[in-house]
Amino acid sequence: MNKYETVFIINPNVEEDGIKALINKFSDLINSDGKVEEVNEMGKRKLAYEIKKNKEGYYVSIEFESNPSLIKELERVYRITDNIMKFITIRKEEE
């Protein structure tokens, strides 16, 4: 099991319930083959450049442990989820 951090940006027009549902969706997906260690909701922030005609986005960071095979599935689900504007997943170095 490796340690990872994923950050995704949710469309700012999504209601609070929708944001919670998306966070739970991705947390459950990670927990299916790994373990979520920390979920950090950073809230609405100004984007460096417009994405899909939006100047703001709702940032969420999740730190977790999982097998490398989960990353491909997680990023596939990000791509097909309409309200996810951008995402990145990185492997954290062992300390």
Structural write-up:
This protein is α+β, with helices and mostly antiparallel strands and 95 residues long. It has helices at residues 16-33, 69-80, and strands spanning 2-10, 34-51, 54-66, 84-91. Strands 2-3-1-4 form a 4-stranded antiparallel sheet. Strand 2 and strand 3 (54-66) form a beta hairpin. The protein is globular, with a radius of gyration of 13 Å.
Question: Topology, please?
Answer:
Elements: E1 2-10, H1 16-33, E2 34-51, E3 54-66, H2 69-80, E4 84-91
Antiparallel strand pairs: 1-3, 1-4, 2-3
> Order of SSEs, N→C?
EHEEHE
Q: Tally the helices: what do you get? A: 2
Order of the strands making up the biggest sheet: 2-3-1-4
Q: Ranges with pLDDT <50 over ≥5 residues?
A: none
Structural class: alpha+beta
Biggest sheet layout: 4 strands, antiparallel
User: Radius of gyration, rounded?
Assistant: 13 Å
List descriptors.
four-stranded antiparallel β-sheet, 4 strands, 32% helix, 51% strand, globular
Nutshell version of this structure?
This protein has 95 residues and is an alpha+beta fold. It has helices spanning 16-33, 69-80; strands at 2-10, 34-51, 54-66, 84-91. The protein has 2 helices and 4 strands, in the order βαββαβ.
